[in-house]
Amino acid sequence: MNIEKSVLGSLDRIGFESPTMIQFETIPQIKQGYDVIGQSETGSGKTAAFGIPLVEKVMKGSKVQALVLAPTRELALQITEDLRKFSYFKRLRVEPIYGGVPINPQISGLRDAEIVVGTPGRILDHMERGTLRTDNVKVFVLDEADKMIDMGFIEDIEMIERNIPKQRQTLLFSATMPESMMRMRERFTKDARKIKTKMKVDEAVLKQYYCDVKPQMKFSLLVHLIKKENPNLSIVFCNSKRDVDVVAENLKENGINAAALHGGMVQNKRERVMESFHAGQIKVLIATDVASRGLDIKDVTHVFNYSVPKDPEDYANRIGRTARAGKSGKAITLLCSDDHQPFRRMSDIYSYDVEKLEVEDLKMLPFKRNEQRGDRFNRFGRDRDSRFSRDHGRRHFSGWRN
Questions:
Q1: Taking Cα atoms as reference points, which of 15, 14, 17, 35 lies closest to residue 26?
Q2: Helix (H) or strand (E) holding 37
Q3: CA–CA distance, 207 with 228 (Å, rounded to integer)
Q4: For the residues 279-308, what does the mean pLDDT come to?
Q5: Quick check: pTM over 0.90?
Q6: In the list 48, 70, 132, 280, which could disulfide-bond 75, CB 3.0-4.6 Å?
Q7: ∠ CA(270), CA(273), CA(276), 5° rounding?
Q8: Within a 10 A sphere around the Cβ of 25, how many other Cβ atoms?
Q9: Which residue, among 76, 79, 114, 123, has the nearest Cα to 93 in the 3D structure?
Q10: Pairwise CA distance, residues 272 & 399, whole Å
Q11: Which helix (H) or strand (E) holds 183?
């Protein structure tokens, strides 16, 4: 692939031997200078797909030359760590920028940074302050772009894009490409190479099941399955932040070591949850799709779909959190009567082999909703500790223009 010697040495150092399909398809196109729109499943190596040619293009000691946007602090930190590994022998300065932490250390770090990786809200904060100058940016990367749209970052992203050079290379990577991204693709890229690799799971190691359940018995079934399966680490996926909070609280009341994770939690709280989950101190993570994308969560043995995802590609990304690196795993989806048709469409698209799992002697457990659990939750069911760490009302940009 004609990779620069210093970068190749860094890849050797971390044990990279051969490229994944998304890397094989995109790296040569990026090296040639094309804008690229890359789509592939979670865990397929998208960070290296844009990261390897990115660190090749950046020169030591020449201001900020690359800007990478990510939807969450966790993903920004993971990308930062990977880029530092890829550029180990080039000694590039990669600076992570995100909200929920003091800004002064970031201001100091930006003075010598050649690559900046961050969340849109805090990146825009630094641009407004004049502490992040982007007039030398040659490569602009949006990772998990669809999730940034879902999380309400589109206006911030557009403001950032308006204030970086038009003569640049734009790389847009994601696991899904919904219609909501059309405006971003058309505006941000020019004559882009569109690359999509096949979504797949290794059904030799990942077994998929579904269970029929009545709505009033859904939580009881989840508790039954968790206790019966006794997973090492597991993720329970819900479609809404409210459901995540309610299910997590009820699981804890039933003696299950569980914690919630979603985009409405403050950053330091989310980080504590992820650290505890990585360390095995929390065995069951209740999450929205933010946890199925981008984050490197190892040794997950079970995935439970408490809610059927809205998009087939989201289902593929959820179940892709288990059975990684050749290890076995299970994905179990709980289906009420209205869920069967959309779930059948998802499994048909990918030709998945999904078995029915029979459950007998299921006992109904109490399930307390938000309004039954005291004043920790406000009247809308939102955790009083959960709030956005960005200013949704900020739309004025007082800084410079290119």
A1: 35
A2: strand 36-39
A3: 16
A4: 85
A5: no
A6: 70
A7: 150
A8: 18
A9: 114
A10: 35
A11: helix 182-188
Q: What percent of the chain has pLDDT over 90?
A: 61
pLDDT over 90 at 79, yes or no: yes
What totals of helices (H) and strands (E) does the chain contain, helices first?
Answer: 14, 14
Strand 206-212 with 329-335, pairing: parallel
Tens digit of each residue's pLDDT (9 = 90 or more) over 63-74: 999 999 999 888
Angle at 137 between CA 135 and CA 139, to 5 degrees: 155
Nearest to 307 by CA among 213, 203, 230, 180: 213
Give strand ranges (E) for 262-371: 284-287, 302-305, 329-335, 354-356
Dihedral angle of Cα 241, 72, 302, 19, to the nearest 10 degrees? 150
Chain centre to alpha carbon of residue 332: 21
Taking each helix axis as running N to C, give the angle between helix 46-57 and helix 73-86, from 0 to 180 degrees, rounded to the nearest 10. 50
Q: Has residue 16 got a pLDDT over 50?
A: yes
> Which of 169, 194, 168 is CA-nearest to residue 181?
194
Mean pLDDT of the chain: 86
How much is the CA Rg of the chain, to the nearest whole Å? 22
Report pLDDT for 177.
Answer: 78
Q: What would the mean pLDDT of 301-310 be, rounded to a whole number?
A: 94
Does the pLDDT value for residue 273 go beyond 80? yes
Q: Which residue has the higher pLDDT, 316 or 394?
A: 316
Q: Nearest CA to 75 among 327, 292, 277, 331?
A: 292
Specify the amino acid at residue 282.
I
* Residue 86: pLDDT over 70: yes
- The predicted model gives 6-20 an average pLDDT of 93
pLDDT at 298: 77
User: How does 300-330 read in b/e, with b if 16+ C-beta sit within 10 Å?
Assistant: bbbbbbbbbbeebbbbbbbbbbbbbeeeebb
CA triple 266-271-274, angle to 5 deg? 130
